[in-house]
## 1
Amino acid sequence: MKVLIIEDDPTLNKNIKEALSAEGWNAESVFDGLLAERLLKKETFDCIIMDINLPGRTGFDLCRNLRTYNTHTPVLILTAFSELEDKIKGFDCGADDYLTKPFFMRELILRINSLVKRSRHNKMNSQVNETIIAGDITIHPLQKKVFRQGNEISLTPREYQVIVKLCKTPGNIISKNELISEIWGSSFDANTNTIEVYINFLRNKIDRPFGKNSIKTKVGYGYYFETE
């Protein structure tokens, strides 16, 4: 497994690299955002560990730019902040998971294994280009494009994953825990209101501009997509 570590703290960078190398993984280190950006355009990795506060280019900007040409490599962000807003900002930029400093190296290893396993599973599933249709919504999985009434809707990677999950089985209730487990992984804190935030993002993009109310909440149970 090939992992890129983007962390400007030399001691933490070294400790992470040693922990990954002990697992038999090929770990490569960089210490600033600009160098990381150039490297990411030239090489491919199985996973990227990315600090938020980087010289040259912040982790948020780096992740957002990466997602314009690479939507599949999992990104785990490291942050000294524990506020929900910072985590949501990371996810909105295209990150797949986060760890708040300080953390145990064992947990980092477990998170990376989980992310890479899920990424490979999703990549295998995406090879089948089965168009998803739910009412007047059409989703093209290989192109990662969503249309409503013929109009393309711009979604972040996380918003896209949530709407795909809802539209695959219209009318079926998907629990909050099921969404978290499949999209964010079992290590994500299920007690946050992150799912509610993303549901609101989707309603603002998919429902309200079209005068619709398709994304429903069944209080105490979860969410479902209602077709007319």
## 2
Amino acid sequence: MKNISWLLLTYKVPPEPAAKRVALWRKLKGMGAVYLQNGVCLLPRTDDHSRRLKMLENDIAQAKGESVILETLALDPGQEAKVLARFKSERDDAYEEFIDKCDDFERDVAKEVAASHYTYAELEENDVDLKKLQGWLLKIQKLDFYGAGRAAEAQARLARCQVVLDAYARRVFDAHDENR
């Protein structure tokens, strides 16, 4: 067994105001936490996660809630594998959504090509969309603690989006006689 250690957060906050519960959930999901059940989540044991959970502990107390943070290990290799699979599954879901957005990006550029719509404004808009995809993939990768299966596919799709945009840019420049 690898003896991977995790931080286990259990918490309970009052149901109202709901905005505080939602904000807490968003912060934890933004850190890459995996929920084992309602109010119980895991994160890899890192100094950054420890610090951030301590800050959330304060937020929970201010919301008149209760929390406990523990460092824990899996009981056996089977349990550890279950936890790792949960982390990987959540990241694969994020990668799948990202790949779907890459499909949308490529379709949008293809529509512009089909319509012979070669403008700088459209190129700039597509460039902004590509930068959003790049930033999104970086966020997913930052939370991919254990190497999810679709990571390489997502990276390849982003590279393909870059190629699509580069080809479109050449057409825009050609349409404006900038490559002559």
## 3
Amino acid sequence: MDNLELFEEGDVSTLYFEELAKRRGFESVAGIDEAGRGPLAGPVVAAAVILPEEFELPGLTDSKKLTEKQRDKFYPQIRQQAKAVGIGVASVGEIDKINILQATLLAMQRAVSRLSYLPDHLLIDGITPLPLKISQQTLKKGDSRSLSIAAASVIAKVVRDRIMYSHSRQLPEYGFAKHKGYGTRLHRQAIAEFGPCYLHRKTFSGVKEYLEKTVD
């Protein structure tokens, strides 16, 4: 893995890491991030995004720092301007079977594989590299420091939110449209009252305690 020079934590999203990689000979750089590691319900979704060299989208940063309205505005702009976008999903069943970290890495690998062409360098949010034979760099708080990763974070978050919205119509009692599966008080109360449903992660604390009250 290449040891690219790091910014101090807290720097804003730029194309610094992408430009540095290209100066070192890499032709295409993909930023990778996920959404949905922490919720009690729903899949984990990852995105891989390859941006053009002259990309500029003022205000784009870590999706967690943006409002839903801002994410929905940036989403089509990123899709339109990006050279390639790949989306990968790991299901609730996969999360329970192989654990959330491994499921997240699986979703990220799927996102890379679904790009229209493979990059030769990856910028990955977090500290865990992917088991791929591609040059890569992990970045702590990468979604606030790299525009490619920030773009991937928005794509992953919007896609996951839309998945949870679709399920909310079938399971309105759980309030998925409001909390997207995260462990809010409203969500925990619904699990206690109705029991877990097929979207709940059965191995997660806050769910497994109520398995005897499962909703089909």
## 4
Amino acid sequence: MKNKNSRLKRALKLRCRIKKQGVNRLSVHKTSQHIYAQILSKDGSTTLVSASTTQVDIKSTLKGTGNVIAAVEVGKIIAQKAVAVGVTEVAFDRSGFKYHGRVKALADAAREAGLKF
């Protein structure tokens, strides 16, 4: 439980900084089997777009859902949906997770697909 509490504390500090910036937020959450991404409005009350490996259209194209390849696919799709809605600039909220592995792969794929952060 100590590790989870530490991660949540890091996430809270990061979200406070993002809230002061006043921009839309790309929030990422990961489990051992899936990765989730959503873009939230400036005040954090509305989800503008979302993508995850639990969605049927994404899951059917992947061999596994808990790996870097799946994270890259989710990053591309979330960026495409965001650009279609008109969101091009976001702040990256990694939810207290370290910036490596699947989180980094998702962020890099979203940048390549057109998001700026």
